[in-house]
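--- STAGE predict ---
source: upstream dedup step, 1 unique chain passed
mode: sequence only
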Amino acid sequence: MNHNTPLSPRPLSHLSEVHRRVLTTAQLRAHGVPAAEVNEQCRPDGPWQQLLPGVVLLHSGPPTGEERLHAVLMYAARERGTGVPVQPGAEEPHRPTYTETMVTGLAALALHGFTSAPELASLKHIDVLVPRMRRLRSTGCARIVRTAALPTPHRVKGVPVAPVPRALADAVAELSDANAVRRLLTEAVRGGHCEPAAVVRELNNAKLLSRPHVVDAVDSLLAEGRAIAEDRLYRMVSEYGLPDPVWNVDLRLPGGPHLGGLDAYWPEQAVAVELDTRAPRQDEDALWSEYARKREHLERLGITVVHITPKKLRDALEQQAAVVRTALMASADRDPAAYVVVLPR
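--- STAGE serialize ---
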């Protein structure tokens, strides 16, 4: 068989370019190429090569980053029938559906556009996430990562990719370089890919918060996330015409106990804003209890406390401005609040 001739009367024109170069043995069978012929074409000096078990590259020479990516997904995907798409897509060549798998780790971060992640072509391994019970092993450039429950993947360049927080956790699990970990976590927040709490939740689930270099990077991440959230809060007050509050203050009863710190406070209306930048770590319950106690104490004194998360400030700034404006307007209908001393924090 000449490798330049069509595989079979069944055309491959409905497949995208890369899927004419990387096919599973099941797909080749569906195109009339028996196993013996595949083995012959994949001999050491042959025109094809077996990239991974059951996955064939239809040319000699090194695979591209994209070819390796699709080969790993083809290897890890749960096959349904031959996996050969039948109908072309409306806008682009039909892409296969990779079932029960997605790219994660550094490869996923590269696909998400992280500049601090290595380029796809330079990665020795491509991590793929699969359900825990799948019977697969890591081999070649495919590294299997198991999970009890698959997250909902994002589609990036036509392939299923783990959400950024999960991809970060899987990348960090393989990294011992503290600077590399810090760069990735910082870019995740600074680049607007996700909120710190979502990253810390995944790192905690992966039991990575016992590693000192990860803890150090998380502390920097939380500080970065708070600074960004504070900047958005300043912008919200300015852009939506809210009266100027006093910023970053501590409240205290006259001659009495400390009531807690607040990010913004309107003394005349007795309205406070507190940024909820808790991260889900081992002490989350204790920290939440402290938040709740402070809020209840302030509200008993007649002070309205508006809790805002960094995610809401990022995704719904106008809506959060409306919540604060409503609280300020409602103050006229409330009983006067207790007198408190306002101190700079």
